[in-house]
Design a protein that fits this description.
The protein contains 2 helices and 24 strands. The protein has 335 residues and is mainly beta.
């Protein structure tokens, strides 16, 4: 019996070194290019001690939406601001007759409902049941949820996971695998994010090695070097990507210790700016970043559980949640 080797490549509390490129320091976005930046609006969802919570953008009026106890990873609001896609985690502990086996995590995607939260935090709807679904992102039209799926999650003797981008409708039907060569490729696609203007970005792994973020048309079907070179752009050493709602920027985290920080880049890579560089000794959670509805602010969390917001010029930094077991903040789609 083969031993399943789980890979910690999908974001969370860990940090690692990535090759981001050397050179002069990355500048911040000039105010004249950023446009008018007003006060933040909307709400932020987050995970606290395995439960799904919502608060105003400034940390006020917190309330529990789902008492899941095992929520983990990226959250995504529906365009109507009434539902939130989230992930619950479990585990498989396999012990074969010859003592081979091992433990690995399994995940599935659920939907929590804001309207029912005040009276019943034990209500949610299951979207996937294949044990491999993570990092959901709702489509701009509200009809689909894109997500990372481990296609080997329910295979007992799989040697490695096979992370690919998939989609389902909001009832869990119309399942699709976006990658055409998923059965033979040694490339993994994780943390998908879909822009409203037909672009797709994801973190790509070559075997077990992180490579960076690929920006490509939404109809990209394969992960070969030839196809990605022909259709896409590549950001070396990047992780946790998120498209701005207006599609003008892709935010990502660089985790190289010397250049760790939050950056934004144009889809064609013509412009890149530093948004936030952590203080000495501070590390970022590497769950995908999240934008405010007006594409002017980004929310993120540090590994001490603090939740922050910052505007795209790197100003307006505000800690909206103190340290603790908090993670994965996600801004609402509406103001």
């Amino acid at each position: 019996m083969k031993k399943y080797i789980g890979l910690l490549i999908l974001g969370g509390w860990f940090s690692f070194a990535l090759v981001h490129g050397q050179g002069s320091p990355t500048p911040k976005l000039p105010a004249e290019k950023a446009g008018q930046i007003g006060a933040p609006l909307g709400k932020i969802a987050f995970i606290r001690e395995g439960d799904l919570w919502v608060m105003d953008w400034d940390g006020k009026n917190q309330f529990k939406v789902v008492a899941a106890q095992n929520a983990d990873g990226r959250l995504s609001w529906a365009p109507d601001n009434k539902r939130i896609a989230f992930v619950r985690k479990g585990s498989v502990d396999l012990k074969g007759p010859d003592n081979l086996g091992g433990q690995h995590r399994v995940y599935d995607i659920f939907i929590g409902f804001i309207d029912s939260a005040r009276t019943n935090t034990n209500w949610w709807f299951r979207v996937t049941d294949g044990l491999g679904g993570r990092h959901p992102e709702w489509s701009a039209d509200g009809g689909k949820i894109y997500f990372t799926n481990d296609l080997n999650a329910n295979t007992v003797n799989a040697m490695l996971p096979n992370y690919q981008t998939c989609s389902v409708d909001t009832a869990g039907g119309s399942y699709q695998i976006l990658t055409r060569d998923w059965q033979t490729t040694d490339r993994f696609a994780t943390m998908p994010t879909i822009a409203p203007i037909g672009r797709y970005a994801f973190v790509m792994y070559k075997g077990t090695n992180p490579a960076g973020v690929v920006i490509a048309p939404a109809d990209l079907k394969g992960l070969s070097d030839a196809e990605i070179s022909a259709k896409g752009k590549f950001v070396s050493g990047a992780t946790a990507p998120a498209w701005s709602p207006d599609g003008n920027w892709l935010a990502y985290i660089n985790m190289e210790l010397a250049n760790q920080g939050i950056y934004i880049v144009k889809p064609d890579l013509s412009e890149k700016y530093l948004v936030y560089k952590p203080a000495a000794g501070q590390l970022l959670q590497t769950y995908p970043l999240s934008w405010s509805p007006d594409s002017k602010w980004i929310t993120f969390a540090t590994q001490d559980g603090a939740i922050w917001i910052v505007d795209i010029t790197g100003n307006g930094l505000k800690q909206v949640m103190g340290t603790g077991l908090n993670s994965a903040p996600a801004w609402s789609k509406k103001k």
